[in-house]
Design goal:
alpha+beta; SH3 type barrels
């Protein structure tokens, strides 16, 4: 597991979800496995052009079935045990866009 990986997450008790869904690991790789949690951004098939939503195409290495949006504005931390299988990886060229959106959302 590393930053930029896409996993299925069964965090069905969260405020913004009621079903297992894909998530993007946004936590620094060096800290994964240090604690029993992981910081993620959920992914939705409802596309949005908002600057804090990063569109990821359903092609290549993503493992997504449909074009989707990474919901940077819904960043959260979940128990590692809530993660299911790895489904893919965010394309490297979009990680810069993700980093900018996270910096903007968190005012870093």
């Amino acid at each position: 597991m590393q930053r930029g990986d896409l996993f299925l997450c069964a965090d069905v008790k969260g405020d913004f979800t009621n079903k297992p869904r894909p998530v993007l690991i946004v936590q620094a790789t060096d800290y994964l496995g240090v604690v029993e949690s992981v910081t993620i951004c959920p992914i939705t098939s409802v596309l949005s052009k908002a600057s804090l939503r990063i569109t990821v195409k359903a092609q290549g290495e993503t493992g997504l079935n449909v074009d989707s949006s990474v919901e940077v504005d819904k960043i959260s931390t979940v128990k590692l045990s809530r993660l299911g299988n790895k489904i893919g990886v965010m394309p490297a060229q979009q990680r810069f866009q993700l980093d900018n959106a996270l910096r903007d959302w968190l005012d870093l």
